[in-house]
Every structure is written in C-alpha cells, then in structure tokens.
C-alpha cells in the first residue's frame, strides 16, 4: 500500500496517522504541503530518519520547487509527476489528507 | 494585524490573505503582518511554481513596503522548528518571541487570521 500525505506535518496529524497504520516496507509519498516533512534541518528531521528505517519516503519535486525547498533529508527520494504515476500504478493507495 | 498561519500553494489562504493586506494598505490603515506556524513558509525564498502551473506570489510580499506596510513580524519558535533563518525569506520581518507577540496582539484593534 502506497501512503499519500499532502498536509504539513507541522499543521496536521496526517503524517502521524499514516505512520500509525502503515505496515513495514510500505512506501510513503509526501506531496503538496506534505513535502515540508522532507525538508532538511527541521525539528522533524530525526523523526523522518526514523521512519525511513521502515519505509521508503518519496517527496514530489514539483511541490518542493514551488515552496523553495532545495535540500531534502538524506535518503528521501525526490520524484516528479511521471514518477508519482509509476508509484500509483504499482500500488494500491491510501490518502491521508 | 494580519496573522498568517498557513503554508502557501497547498491552500488559497496565504494568497488571499496577501491580497487583502494590499487592499487594506490602499485604504491607509495601520496594517501589520505576523507570520506564525506554517505561515512562515509563505515568505520562503527561491520558490518556483512553474511546474505546478500556478502563480508564484511569494515574491509579492516584497511590494508591501511600497504600500507603506512596513510592520512585519515573525515568531521565532515557528522559524526555529522549521530550520529557517532570516536569510531564507524574501522580506526581513522583525523576529519576536512568544511573550512579545502576545503583547503585540493585545495592542491590536482587529486581528485577521489567514
């Protein structure tokens, strides 16, 4: 199951709830305001690094660019819209909005 | 005082807030802006919304000065927890701690949340 998170982890419990139910190995895609979780140097960095022990974490490039984020946490994979489509093709999805 | 609390582009709040600020500026009101929580992201430098196909309004915060809107404030805690410094912004708001912000809010006639 691919988990889609599109709300800021600083403003919403979307990421928290996602982590509560995501099974080990399930990929997590951060997009729209969700990408703030992928930014390097925030108070959440250690937590995201922990999450990556159990889940591949992706961040949508177009949303990172729109918000002026150049540096993502080491290990977060940046993907574009075609990459997003490929992920969705390969998995069932669960959206945490 | 306008209180900007939401991130840009994910929702319309930040953009509409800025529009309202500019209108109020035209009426020569004593307008000030406070950036707290995810609102601090709305003045992040280096935004490029081309791939999303939507208007990039972050640089527009720079024109506020031309409207005589010079009172910009930012919550230190919100900046710090997001790993941001004054160098990350298109404008240079005054950095305040929570006690200073509480006092400033008490002094306002009206607060507009966005």
Give a structural overview.
The complex is a heterodimer of chains A (97) and B (114). Chain A is of the alpha/beta class. Chain A has one domain: DsrEFH-like (Hypothetical Protein Ychn, Chain: A, 3-Layer(aba) Sandwich), CATH 3.40.1260. Helices cover 32% and strands 19% of the residues of chain A. Chain A has four helices and five strands. Chain A has helices spanning 14-21, 45-51, 61-66, 81-90; strands at residues 2-5, 28-30, 57-60, 77-79, 93-96. A five-stranded parallel β-sheet of chain A has the order 4-3-2-1-5. Chain A is globular, with a radius of gyration of 12 Å. The model of chain A has no long low-confidence stretch (mean pLDDT 97). Chain B is of the alpha/beta class. Chain B has a single domain, classed as 3-Layer(aba) Sandwich (Hypothetical Protein Ychn, Chain: A). Chain B contains three helices and five strands; from the N terminus they run E-H-E-E-H-E-H-E. In chain B, strands 4-3-2-1-5 form a five-stranded parallel β-sheet. The mean pLDDT of chain B is 95. Chain B: Belongs to the DsrF/TusC family. Chain B: GO terms for molecular function: transferase activity.
Mean pLDDT of chain A: 97
Strand coverage percent of chain A: 15-25%
N-to-C SSE string of chain B, H for helix and E for strand: EHEEHEHE
**SS content category of chain A:** alpha/beta
Could you tell me the radius of gyration of chain B in angstroms?
13 Å
State the major sheet of chain A: 5 strands, parallel
The low-confidence runs of chain A, each spanning 5 or more residues with pLDDT under 50, are none
CATH architecture of chain A: 3-Layer(aba) Sandwich
Number of strands of chain A: 5
> CATH topology of chain A, which one?
Hypothetical Protein Ychn, Chain: A
State the name of the first-level CATH class of chain A.
Answer: Alpha Beta
Give the class of chain B from helix and strand content and strand pairing. alpha/beta
CATH fold description of chain B:
Hypothetical Protein Ychn, Chain: A
Spatial ordering of strands, largest sheet of chain B: 4-3-2-1-5
Q: How many domains of chain B?
A: 1
Please compute the radius of gyration of chain A using only Cα atoms. 12 Å
Number of helices of chain A: 4
């Amino acid at each position: 199951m691919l988990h889609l998170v599109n709300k800021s982890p600083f403003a919403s419990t979307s990421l928290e709830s996602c982590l509560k139910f995501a099974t080990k190995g399930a990929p997590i895609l951060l997009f729209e305001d969700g990408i703030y979780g992928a930014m390097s140097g925030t108070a959440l960095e250690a937590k995201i690094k922990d999450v990556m022990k159990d889940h591949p974490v992706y961040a949508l490039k177009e949303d990172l660019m729109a918000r002026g984020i150049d540096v993502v946490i080491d290990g977060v994979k940046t993907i574009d819209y075609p990459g997003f489509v490929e992920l969705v093709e390969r998995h069932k999805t669960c959206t945490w909005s | 005082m306008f209180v900007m609390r939401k991130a840009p582009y994910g929702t319309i709040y930040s953009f509409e807030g800025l529009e309202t600020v500019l209108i109020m500026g035209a009426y020569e009101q004593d307008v000030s802006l406070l950036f707290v929580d995810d609102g601090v992201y709305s003045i992040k430098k280096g935004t490029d919304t081309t791939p999303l196909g939507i208007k990039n309004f972050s640089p527009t915060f720079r024109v506020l000065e031309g409207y005589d809107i010079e009172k910009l404030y930012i919550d230190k805690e919100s900046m710090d927890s997001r790993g941001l410094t004054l160098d990350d912004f298109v404008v240079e708001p005054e950095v305040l701690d929570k006690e200073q912000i509480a006092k400033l809010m008490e002094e306002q006639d009206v607060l507009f949340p966005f």
